[in-house]
Design goal:
alpha+beta; two-stranded antiparallel ribbon; 2-methylcitrate dehydratase PrpD; 60s Ribosomal Protein L30, Chain: A
Length: about 475
């Protein structure tokens, strides 16, 4: 009997594999922004590993397990197998909800891919690729950002109730396989298996169920990408029609028959337009609202008890994601509550990661301020949010007092981390990194890290193993 013809591979799997396997050729702007994103993500991780709730998730699953030449996790002394290191690094980057972001039809935090990228790169440079340099990591970063977030432009995973971390697993699988030396066929195989992991409901991000899993779900997804990459390199086959198989493929069984499309060629569009979170450690839709509140703080800080109403205009994604009333049960609940964030900023003029913790949140005035807030959608704000030429994030706040007076409405359309405000925002990203390094590594070590990252050309050429050595305890 003749051998059956091989199945045709889904075009999207081919497109991802072709792009990821191609020799990198990106713009100077893409590389410059990629460096900022790498350092921004490391800053997030260094701050997070000092948080007890994050730290308890890190390290080997079985205490005492030793992995010779294992992958390192920034800010820790762990040496782990690459899958667990990807979980730990991805979780640390994502933990404080302070890493870079992308918003289109769906949201994404593409720096979560650095869990996979840093873990695999460190694994390789301690073995078969000792000369692997930082530029190789930047190439992988640009590609991972592109694969994950181009797929958010016209595909809604929220509609069937999924968490978009499925795209993170896909992009991490693609770039991890490429870093490990995989062929196009192996990249497609790893990516197909990542799609088959994709039935991941968003339960832990919304409403009363909000909990810390929203901070480690990305670590889980990027580590699955590494697992599928390693398996592909061992010969694990892929599933060419993972997306398109009738009834049981991802499109029919998960997406209710709606095809998944890449509406533009993969290049470096995402990294060139990435959104940073500076200076507020908040969910992205609260960034401009927080800036409004900072401007209002000196005008209201001595009149908080006399406030009658706080009226907030915003867009539909803010209302869906962080418009939250009622009890807030934990830090993860609070950092996704617009009203809590604004209450803190109006009172204190700033917000830090510690301000989401239970002890700080016991301040009764914060709940009193929350009760005075009303949040409404402005349809023009929603149009500007979805407009690909703007990708605005508009918020406006107007405050009224019991004595009948009011303050003029304060409105901010584009956050400091937006491409339209790069000149203002990038120095804040650099300061964010400097502060995190100085806190985690005071003294000579911190100075060495800052010196190593100061010159772009020298940093690109730096051996990655040496960079990771500086970041390890």
């Amino acid at each position: 009997m003749a051998s059956p013809q091989p199945l045709a591979t889904d075009p999207l799997l081919v497109q991802i594999a072709d792009y990821t396997a191609a020799p990198p050729a990106f713009s100077a702007e893409a590389y410059a922004t990629a460096r900022s994103s790498l350092l921004d993500s490391i800053a997030c991780a260094l701050e997070a590993v000092a948080q007890p709730d994050c730290a308890k998730l890190l390290g080997p699953y079985v205490a005492g397990t030793v992995v010779p030449n294992g992958s390192r996790v920034p800010g820790t002394d762990f040496r782990l197998d690459p899958v667990k290191a990807a979980f730990d690094t991805g979780t640390a980057i994502r933990w404080l909800d302070y890493n870079d972001s992308w918003f289109a039809l769906e949201a994404g935090h593409p720096s979560d891919n650095l869990g996979a990228i840093l873990a695999v790169a460190d694994y390789l440079c301690q073995g078969e690729r000792p000369d692997l340099d930082v530029k190789v990591v930047l190439d992988a970063l640009i590609q991972a950002y592109e694969v994950q977030c181009v797929l958010t432009l016209e595909n809604s995973f929220l509609a069937p109730g999924l968490d978009a971390t499925v795209l993170l697993a896909v992009s991490s699988a693609a770039v991890a396989t490429r870093l490990l030396g995989g062929t196009k066929a192996q990249i497609a195989a790893a990516v197909s298996n990542a799609w088959l992991d994709g039935a991941n409901p968003r339960t832990y991000r919304l409403g009363a169920n909000t909990g810390p899993r929203k901070s480690w779900a990305s670590g889980d997804a990027t580590s699955r990408g590494v697992k599928h990459a390693l398996m592909a390199l061992r010969g694990e086959p892929g599933y060419p029609a993972a997306l398109s198989t009738a009834k049981y493929g991802f499109v029919d069984s998960i997406m209710r028959g709606k095809p998944i499309v890449a509406p533009r060629p993969f290049g470096s569009y995402i990294i060139e337009n990435i959104l940073y979170k500076v200076p507020f450690p908040t969910e992205f839709h609260a960034q401009t609202a927080s800036e409004c509140a900072v401007r209002l703080h000196p005008l209201v800080k001595d009149r908080l008890d006399g406030i009658k109403a706080i009226r907030i205009r915003t867009h539909t994604r803010t209302m869906h994601t962080i418009d939250k009333k009622g009890p807030l049960r934990n830090a993860a609940d609070r950092d996704h509550c617009l009203q809590y964030i604004l209450a803190v900023v109006l009172k204190h003029g700033k917000i830090t990661s510690e301000d989401y913790e239970d002890e700080f949140a016991r301040d009764p005035q914060l709940d009193q301020l929350r009760e005075k807030m009303s949040v409404t959608e402005d349809e023009s704000f929603t149009r500007d949010y979805y407009d690909p030429e703007k990708r605005a994030n508009p918020n406006a706040i107007r405050i009224e007092f019991d004595d009948g007076t009011s303050l003029p409405e304060v409105r901010v359309d584009f956050p400091l981390g937006h491409p339209r405000r790069r000149a203002e925002g990038l120095p804040l990203v650099a300061e964010k990194f400097r502060h995190a390094v100085a806190t985690a590594f005071p003294g000579a070590r911190g100075e060495k890290i800052m010196a190593a990252t100061a010159d772009p050309a020298a940093f690109d050429a730096m051996k990655f193993r040496d960079f990771m050595e500086l970041l390890a305890r």
